[in-house]
Amino acid sequence: MQRRRRGLALAALGGLLLGTLAATAAEAGTVARSPRVETVASGLDNPRGLNFGPGGVLLVTEAGSGGDGPCIIGAGGQEFCLGQTGAVTAVHRGQQRRIVTGLPSLGTPDLSEVLGPHDVVVHRRSLLVPVGLGTDPARRAELGPAGAAVGTILKVNPATDRWRTFADLAAYEAENDPDQDQPGTAPDTNPYALLPQGGSKVLAVDAGANDLLRIDRRGRISVLTVFPVEMVSGVPMQPVPTTVARGPDGAYYVGQLTGFPFPVGGAKVFRVVSGKPPTVHAEGFTNIVDIAFDRRGRLLVLEIFKNGLTSGDPTGALIRVEKDGSRTEIASEGLITPTGVAVGPDGSYYVSNKGSALPGEGEVLRIRP
After folding, report:
1. What global pTM score does this model have?
2. pLDDT for 31-70, tens place per residue?
3. I need a surface site. Which of 195, 234, 306, 334 has the fewest CB within 10 A?
4. Domain coordinates in residue numbering, the chain
5. For 35-368, CATH number?
6. 126: Cβ contacts below 8 Å, ≥ 6 apart
């Protein structure tokens, strides 16, 4: 009965999404031969994670453009000011529409960096959306009541455009700080990616806390694993996990952005099995922002900066790891700070592009290799 109810709930959500749209009318790899690329959504404000919902509707988070404040000092000593400019956009058959608006967003005054809604997944009849913070959770209080939802996972009802806090990752990090025994760490939280599990549970990646968390249907949080700090040139490099996907073997796979000094080729994909420490599945990547598995079980790795975060070059890359371990660069030209990848029902690869740009410049690309 529970499975049937869940199916009915998903069907209802799918009908809602479609209805809202209808209202709007480590080896050098090879390079794929000229993939077919088309733009399926545009005019987005810093698009980030994307996933397919019921009915083949593509859901895209928009981190927004911050706002007028209040403000806090965040990562790198930068000032971030709060606004309610985050959103979720639905895309289907050539139509797009913001189905959720008014979500929290933190942006620097020049909008060179924006933290806000970073991912979206379907959870029963609602959507779950992690909202970034990117600093010590103790600083959240400086944002006042309007900032209480920053550093959390929100449960959003797209029918009413209303939301509430589902799980407070910032509070959990402040109280527990699971990576505190590792060098160079301090309390930090930046909810970034989600993965649904059976039984209404969900996994959450906290890029600031360096951990993978399990959250039950009531929003209670527990640690699945903590990722290791690595010494690079005598500096403790934070792992900065940014993405999680379930592999064809049932294990969880997590990609890392890496922290300072952001070495080219220093990013890894970890394999995680409950009850065991993470192991390295693949390495030699640079600044991983998202991963996925295609319909043939091949790993897709999206690099936000293929030449390194400090290179000044915003070019990214989508790389496919073949079954024999070789790597194919599916696309790079035209990928400008790409931030999310998903595999569509048709087998095509969908990529959030220009995910760190001026408002309105973001887009979603469909890539058919």
Report:
1. 0.92
2. 666 789 999 999 999 999 999 999 999 999 999 999 999 9
3. 234
4. 35-368
5. 2.120.10.30
6. 13, 155, 156, 157, 158
